[in-house]
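Internal tracking record. Fields below are filled automatically when a chain is submitted to the structure queue. Please do not edit lines marked as system-generated. If the sequence contains nonstandard residues, flag them in the REMARKS field before resubmitting.
Queue: standard
Priority: normal
Entity type: single polypeptide chain
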Amino acid sequence: MTASSRTLRIVPWMALAALVVACQSKTPTVNSPPSQRYTAPRSMETQRESAAQANLQLGIGYLRQGNLALAQTKLERANVEDPHNANIHAALGLLDERLGKDKDADKEYRTALSLAPQDPSMLNNYAVYLCSHGRAAEGVHNFEAAASNPLYSSPWAAYTNAGVCQRQAHHENDAAELFTRAIRSNPSYAEAVFQASDLDLSQHNLASARLRLEFYLTNNPATADLLLLGWRIGQAQNDSVMSTRYAQRLAKEFPGSDQARSIGATTPNPG
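SYSTEM-GENERATED OUTPUT FOLLOWS
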């Protein structure tokens, strides 16, 4: 798993989770006892919107499970019931990506964004699509727009994604600047520290990579990716003490992880 691809793979599933939350947040709750409640007759429009929300949640669930046929059925039905719902179009965009229908996905993402231009999750969704399809400049623009939106609760994630997008496009200096902005926005965001240090390692800026990584680990919990990166930096510096220390931590704190296994595969068998 390469550093420059991992973040952009994660974001679509984060977007699905956000869509579920958005759907649930639209379901009203009533705290009064059933005998004291008054239920007003629901209009046909309200009924259609409720049905659309239900089908949207089902479609997202099937999409998560990889059942694309059922996801398509539910999401298309939701769109018929509520064609002006941005979350439905965003979910259809994710579905079309999974189906390899790139032009349709682009159309759905743009529709979602036109329906909710101030929703940072819609900017983020489209940015992920753009970056994964070689349209880095547009993708970075959307990530930065999401990060600057006061409604977005985690701008450091958008800055990090923008940096990953720039790195994929081989714009390393721009990527480094965006990772720095992410860390300044949230110094405890592990992914930004990983991406910045991994970029330094790839450019043989070993002292910088090591300093940033070790400062972070002194003040924050470790992740398997960061410990593996520490081992890689030690290897690059021919520092066997450092490499051994991070390998031992990885085996102890994340046993059975892919990262721990990757070190085991490179370690000679003493027998």
